[in-house]
From TrEMBL, chains A, B:
Belongs to the PEP-utilizing enzyme family. It comes from the Bacteria. The keyword Metal-binding applies. InterPro entries: PEP-util_enz_mobile_dom, PEP_util_C, Phosphohistidine_dom_sf, Pyruvate_phosphate_dikinase, Pyrv/PenolPyrv_kinase-like_dom, Pyrv_kinase-like_dom_sf. Residues 285-632 form the PEP-utilising enzyme C-terminal domain. This is Pyruvate, phosphate dikinase. Its cofactor is Mg(2+). It comes from Rubellimicrobium thermophilum DSM 16684. Keywords: Kinase, Magnesium, Metal-binding, Pyruvate, Transferase. Its EC number is 2.7.9.1. GO terms for molecular function: kinase activity; metal ion binding; pyruvate, phosphate dikinase activity. Catalyzes the reversible phosphorylation of pyruvate and phosphate. Transmembrane segments: none annotated.
Length: 642, 642
């Protein structure tokens, strides 16, 4: 392509029309007079600017006609190739010649901006804009990230359990974290593993780093809940309590107060304060997701345990809450002591009395969430973890506990010991606890229904969804349905306010999937919990897998970590069986998938194909899910020859 | 019925022709002269004997004709009613009249003897004799039992984990158990839970009682292996170490040295030395089982881990060993210290060096078992448990361990800590250990193949079956098949002795069942391990279920304890899917079921219906399995109108 632009000027240059990092439209490039061919690409010495610039000469000034032609050519190329291109050109005696045009490599942020701009300019369709952005790239737009171009002094790599990056000074106890926060200092809480007693310290920390644990360990779950970066399972680290130091591989010693950076997206822990980039969800991002929603044909809800989470969910346009885990509500502030009193209650009456003090707190949680979600559906999972998660393990904490519950230390130790389990994952938790200690679920149901009545009185009709965890037999559902129905009736007759609710089941044991037909007869919805279902299908504890799973994946024994990429061959097969049988038991049963996998493109495509109603993922995954779901719908449309 | 027998004599009596406890043929009953109707039944005062007796008058002497007629009538009734009956009769002026005949209630032992005698007398067929005995009654013939007629002073009830009854003096440590045995005193070892360090004490004890644990806990497994009675999970007991006492419900205190009786059949622990009845497998028992074998159409093998077990298996006519768990071989004697050295090895070379010292011990185990089984198939499951089961937990034992492995205590503690798992059941064990620490399986394969060569040189052709535990993916099998094939080739070429072996998979994760088609492509057999499969299908740890499972069963939430009665609806469904897919992957794949359930009538009927090749249960369950299998075959024959 050669365009006459006048006489005299010769040289070569390169031009692009966007900032590759931000995606903003601006002219970037250079021009090298007296050069030939691609010289300007390899040398910046003696180059001039393209646009008018106070710092030196520019092509725009020197040769305005050639410059104008260049811009026209750029526009034409963008339109014809339907892409932002970097263009190499020469001027030969004023004649513009385009040598080459290559796609501008770009950041995730710029990719979104470019796709949206091309669609807004009518160059590509909105569907194509939606298809052009890799959903996996979105999370980095939602969290502060370690600058990918900065050098990384990596201390160790663990499991990135809560995305984002933060720098701060090392502290080794929750108390020190609180003290640092009080001084206004950013700190990184480093623990072997965290327990409920560390909650306040975690609130105070800029990030959390643990030596043990996996994606569902206490630190990981709470870290994601708090929205702070978290790396867990950094097994190569050692804490040297005596020296108040952390020992990293290679014998590097970090003392309390030393600066480190936790990258919860990649799992890296870096020496010092690494440069970071801020979160950047902009207008283009929002627009792209709005377009995605017009193509999407499967619902996207968020997992949200707190009013903060609910607000995030709403901000990310989740269509509701698909999983509100109620147990985290019991870890906070003074509530954990109430939980402990309940655990030490002598009988059902005393237990009920303690729960009566938890009731208004739970009700307020639910009322706040209903208010934020403004009529969108909220699915509340009743209490799930084993009770011993609420009890401390070290001696000092046990002594404190003995004081809180006014019992001799020996008795407290005996109770803690009695509640300890060989395999807590497979023990007395979920619906099993709901059945054997009925006061807990009764209190929760009452709190949910009273909050529903409050919402109704504020003019907001809420139909709460109540979900039972760890179900393995039909009778569990029948029995609890009877009890929860009774609580609903009591609240209705006491308040005179009519309301409806829906009872459903979290399908997370293989048996619940196999028996879904009969379970669905008492369940308006079935939500497949892929975390536990993966653990049970493989016989693999997520918290313990760290010691061999990486080797398994490296050797190709498992193609991928099944906790990150859903295993469609095994777990997916069980879900398919469960969905099919669930529908056989109740034709209009609502099917969904919740858990870590629900925000991944593979799981979303699978759910869409199986005709699920929605997926529910953590709030920060909602944009990924919305985009992935739209892409799955578009792909299937084009596969059908649409 | 009235028979003239002469003049004069009048009275009434009752007669039967067997001893209801032993089943022996002898005349039992009494006769009351001058009585009418049923008087002789309600009163013994003034009654005379039926047969000649030095202690007093008898009907046989007083009225020989009437007595002879009575015997004839008895014979006729037995033949006509095809059963041992208790007969009420009167004499009216010498006229014999039969008033009533009821089935003699009888012990399990007598039931076997009666059924066999009726068949041998041609009164019933052998098939009917086989159908008449309740398989569930057989175990009490194989173990010493607490006399059911003696009064029971029950201290507490736990889980009957290893059948039989034994009395002895309480000891609280393994050392004390050894000391008592050295003095020739029977003792009952009472522990919170047992660990590998207790093995020698368990060998020395007459029975074991633990406060924690379930049917698969260390105490239970070892107890069954040793054939000593064992009750576990007696959670209501407390050990008061200071007072060297055990506190039972109701505040009863038992000191060391107090006598108790452990009933491992029922789970009862009784005060004092309760009267017991000896084991009574007699000729009738053997004959009945021989007949059963002629009807049976599914194989019965035994689970046997040691030469002793193998001998039992052979004595009970098991057709082979279906499950030889190799890990128990590592707990015994000095071997556990070798295991510990291996765990503390610095690298693969050092590990291999320790394993080389275990190799001859393993080889000798296998050679002994092959010799006992004399060509019958032996299926050896490679190492399964997590390594931390071989490490102690209390401080004193850790200090000893530090000495054994010549490492500082702090290092030993760190390693123990590092190996600890949140959910050991779902952790680094089975094939996962086999893949990540390859030296263990390589040593085991070598020991198996060298023992095979030894057997071949003794003229016994053994085709060992090597089974991989906890498989969840095809690649695990492929990878280990390659490694084990290599070991076999090396042994063949080193010894010059050709031999074959068969590699198979223990299907105990839901995923292995779901992926059975592809797994079977590298597996000559699939053995469904219902213990772990039940745990994973329900998400239920057998060791932890004790705290709520009894309540669940009592409330009818689970119809039965799924660890005792196989859950056909859930677990069975997965097995069906696995069997069907396994056959699809390899038409001639051998299918079997092993684990606690395999000896129950319900599981056997299920396996037979699904076309399984065999079941494998603990040696003492083999008779139950043989009888149940025969009954299932006979029932299905009669259902088909045979």
């Amino acid at each position: 392509m050669a365009l006459g632009v006048g006489r005299g000027e010769s040289g070569s240059g390169v031009i692009q029309f966007i900032d590759a990092t931000t995606g903003e439209r601006r002219i970037i490039g250079r021009y090298l007079g007296q050069s030939q061919g691609r010289e300007a690409l390899s040398s910046t010495r003696g180059a001039s600017y393209l646009t008018r610039d106070p710092r030196g000469p520019s092509l725009e000034e020197a040769c305005p006609e050639a410059f104008a032609r260049l811009l026209e050519a750029g526009d034409r190329i963008r339109t014809r190739l339907r892409e932002e291109m970097q263009i190499e050109f020469t001027l030969e005696n004023g004649q513009l010649r385009i040598l080459d045009a290559i796609r501008v490599p770009r950041s995730a942020r710029a990719a979104v901006r470019v796709a949206v701009a091309l669609a807004e300019d009518g160059i590509i369709g909105r569907d194509e804009a939606v298809m052009r952005v890799d959903p996996a790239a979105l999370p980095q737009l939602l969290h502060r990230q370690v600058d990918p171009d900065a050098p990384r002094d990596r201390l160790v790599t663990g499991i990135g359990a809560s995305p984002g990056a933060a720098s701060g000074r090392i502290v080794l106890t929750a108390e020190d974290a609180e003290a640092a926060a009080a001084r206004g200092e950013a700190c990184i809480l480093v623990r072997r593993e965290t327990t409920p007693e560390d909650i306040r310290g975690m609130h105070a920390a800029a990030a959390v780093l643990t030596i043990r644990g996996g994606m569902t360990s206490h630190a990981a779950v709470i870290g994601r809940g708090l929205g702070i970066p978290c790396v867990v399972g950094a097994a190569e680290l050692e804490i040297d309590r005596r020296r108040r130091a952390v020992i990293a591989p290679g014998g590097r010693i970090l003392h309390e107060g030393d600066l480190v950076t936790v990258d919860g997206t990649t799992g890296d822990v870096l020496m010092g304060a690494a440069p970071t980039l801020p979160a950047t969800p902009d207008d283009s991002f929002r627009r792209l997701l709005e377009w995605a929603d017009t193509f999407r044909d499967i619902g996207v809800r968020a997992n949200a345990d707190t009013p903060q989470d609910a607000r995030l969910a709403r901000d990310f346009a989740a269509e509701g809450i698909g999983l509100c885990r109620t147990e985290h509500m019991f870890f906070e502030g003074g509530r954990i002591n109430l939980m402990r009193e309940m655990i030490f209650a002598e009988d059902a009456g005393e237990r009920r009395a303690v729960l009566d003090r938890l009731l208004p707190l739970q009700r307020a949680d639910f009322a706040a969430i209903f208010r934020i979600m403004a009529g969108r559906p909220v699915c509340i999972r009743l209490f799930d973890p084993p009770l011993h998660e609420f009890l401390p393990s070290d001696r000092a904490a046990l002594r404190d506990l003995a004081e809180v519950v006014s019992r001799p230390l020996s008795e407290v130790e005996a109770r803690v010991d009695q509640l300890r389990e060989y395999n807590p994952m497979l023990g007395l938790r979920g619906v099993r606890l709901g059945i054997t200690v009925p006061e807990i679920y009764e209190m929760q149901a009452q709190a949910i229904f009273e909050a529903t009545v409050e919402a109704a009185q504020d003019g907001e009709a809420v139909v709460p969804e109540v979900m039972l965890p760890l179900v393995s037999a039909r009778r569990e559902v029948e029995m609890l349905k009877t009890r929860i129905d009774a609580v609903a009736s009591a609240v209705r007759s006491r308040t005179g306010v009519p309301f409806a609710y829906r009872l459903g089941v979290m399908v997370e044991t293989p048996r619940a999937a196999l028996r879904a037909a009969e379970i669905a007869q008492n369940a308006a919805f079935l939500s497949f919990g892929t975390n536990d279902l993966t653990q049970l299908t493989y016989g693999l504890s997520r918290d313990d897998a760290g010691r061999f799973l990486p080797a398994y994946v490296a050797q190709g024994i498992f193609p991928e970590d099944p906790f990150h990429a859903i295993d469609l061959e095994g777990v997916g097969e069980l879900i398919r069986i469960g969905a099919e049988r669930g529908r056989r038991g109740r034709a209009d049963v609502v099917l969904s998938l919740c858990g870590e996998h629900a925000g991944t493109p593979r799981a979303i495509e699978f759910c869409r194909r199986e005709g699920f109603d929605y997926v529910s993922c953590s709030p920060y995954r909602v944009p990924v899910a919305r985009l992935s779901a739209a892409q799955a719908a578009l792909r299937s449309r084009s596969a059908r020859g649409g």
